[in-house]
Design goal:
- The chain contains eight helices and 14 strands.
- It has helices at about 45-60, 75-85, 90-95, 135, 145-170, 180-185, 255-260, 315-320, and strands at about 40, 65, 105-110, 125-130, 190-195, 210, 215-220, 230-235, 235-240, 245-250, 270, 280-285, 290-295, 310.
- The strands form three sheets. The chain has an eight-stranded mixed β-sheet.
- Strand 1 (about 40), helix 1 and strand 2 (about 65) form a beta-alpha-beta unit.
- The protein is globular and about 60 Å long.
- This is Fe2OG dioxygenase domain-containing protein.
- One of its GO terms (molecular function) is dioxygenase activity.
Length: about 325
């Protein structure tokens, strides 16, 4: 199955199956290159100021970067290094892990959902389930040898950061600190280690097309040397330029629903380039499958009726995976 992966060969021309229609191309020359994405310093001793900054970022952008987030630099560097080492494995080694089955808890795959999409995306990725670690780590790649230990440490640190952010986001909505963590139940955690090889025609394709995340919160470690993440703001795509040692936080669909539409799960995409490959590690905190989701009761009133109906995450996730990635916002299917 190695021939399915684009990371196993050098490509001098873009295969037809990756070429987007004229109307659906990234138009890279129209991207705003240096727009300000909100940045929050979590070491600021003024908690009220941090809460206010996060609330403003969640309502205006749905995206922000965090500095002094508590993840040790050596843990971040080790995770990125072992991710690069993984994608340098031989095609034969990688072929052992390949699957195009979205239901598999651990798989190396390509594009987004190659079984049903008509145009592919210039991305290979390793998908890992991460909680509870002791259940899933034995299925993870045994090569490179440090992979399981390094990524386990990274997963634990990211999970704790996610819960800290939940508390700050809850406060920013006027809810109890532990509201989000409690209402989402025993959180699942996934990870996507994304590899975007050098692309011969980046103007014709995407690493990932515009989409929102179906989960609650995404914590992204970007390649500091190579930009590629872009966010839609007021009808224009803006580049998210990596900051040293920062992490990018973006709200998923479930926090937009929980906030009764106050906060945004924003359209974002990944573009590719012809000069250098790019790596990113996305960590997803996801509600328990059976928990009842929808707007927080405290945020519903006469002047702010419920925007979304209640549903389970299992129902939502199945709906999300049954569609194309760049179809209408999946939350639109759950409006009251």
């Amino acid at each position: 199955m190695a021939e399915q992966l684009i990371s196993t060969a050098v490509h001098h021309t873009l295969p037809d199956s990756y070429v987007r229609s004229e109307a659906d191309r990234p138009r890279l020359d129209e991207v705003v290159p240096d727009a300000d994405i909100p940045v929050v310093d979590l070491a600021n001793p003024d908690r009220a100021a941090v809460v206010a900054q996060i609330g403003a970022a969640c309502s205006s952008h749905g995206f922000f970067q965090v500095l002094n987030h508590g993840l040790p630099l050596e843990v971040m560097l080790a995770a990125m290094a072992v991710a690069h080492d993984f994608f340098r494995l031989s095609p034969e080694e990688k072929a052992k892990l390949y699957s195009d089955d979205p239901a598999k808890k651990m798989r190396l795959s390509t594009s987004f959902n190659v079984r049903k999409e008509t145009v592919h995306n210039w991305r290979d990725y390793l998908r890992l389930h991460c909680h509870p670690l002791e259940q899933f780590v034995p299925e993870w790649p045994a090569n490179p040898p440090p992979f399981r230990d390094v990524m386990s440490t990274y997963c634990k640190e990211v999970r704790q950061l996610g819960f800290r952010l939940y508390a700050l986001i809850s406060e920013s909505l006027g809810l109890e600190q532990d509201y989000i963590k409690k209402v989402l139940g025993e959180q699942e955690q996934h990870m996507a280690v994304n590899f975007y090889p050098k692309c011969p025609s980046p103007e014709l394709t995407y690493g990932l097309p515009a989409h929102t995340d179906p989960n609650a919160l995404t914590i992204l470690m970007m390649d500091e040397q190579v930009a590629g993440l872009q966010v839609l703001k007021e009808g224009r795509w803006i580049a998210v330029n990596p900051r040293p040692n920062a992490l990018v936080i973006n709200l998923g669909d479930q926090l937009q629903a929980l906030s009764n539409g106050r906060y945004k799960s924003v359209w974002h995409r990944a573009v590719v380039n012809s000069d250098r490959p790019r790596m990113s590690i996305a960590s997803f905190l996801c509600p328990c499958n059976s928990v009842k989701l929808g707007p927080a009761e405290k945020l519903i009133g006469e002047k702010s009726p419920a925007v979304y109906r209640n549903y389970t995450y299992d129902e939502y996730y199945k709906k999300f995976w049954s569609r194309n990635l760049d179809q209408e916002h999946c939350l639109e299917l759950f409006r009251t």
